[in-house]
Amino acid sequence: MIKIQKVFCLLELKWGMVLIGIVELILCATLVGLSKGMHVNIVYYLSTTVSILHIIACVMLLISVAVPMKELVIPYLIAGIIRFIVLLLGVIWLVIYGMRHEIFNYQPIHTESVIVMVISFIISAYFWVCVYSWFKKLGGSTPID
């Protein structure tokens, strides 16, 4: 597995976790607000549930910076995997939904939503690898700074 020593090649892992935790808190809180207007209730409830779980995991990640326990990082890693699955299913659903309705001249593919979800997937994957590196560092014998 890939291990990262510095987040964005600038920040030590410890401070990178603070940055990741704060950025993810803001993004997840925004997602909950944006998904409120969606037409399909199941998508709203799923994205809200995943976002709330991810917010809790981000708070635990921030706590792991002050109290270096690798058990506090595990919820973020699990929530990240769940988020990957939900994002992937969301992209697939939007493409299939858009293609099906485009045939009947009903509604075009939601290109902007697909692009945002793919970018979110890529950023989330990088953040997940950074947090995994933090998890390995907390479990190892190297000093934390």
From TrEMBL:
It comes from the Eukaryota. Keywords: Membrane, Transmembrane, Transmembrane helix. The chain crosses the membrane at residues 15-35, 42-67, 73-97, 109-135. This is MARVEL domain-containing protein. The lineage of its organism: Eukaryota, Metazoa, Ecdysozoa, Arthropoda, Hexapoda.
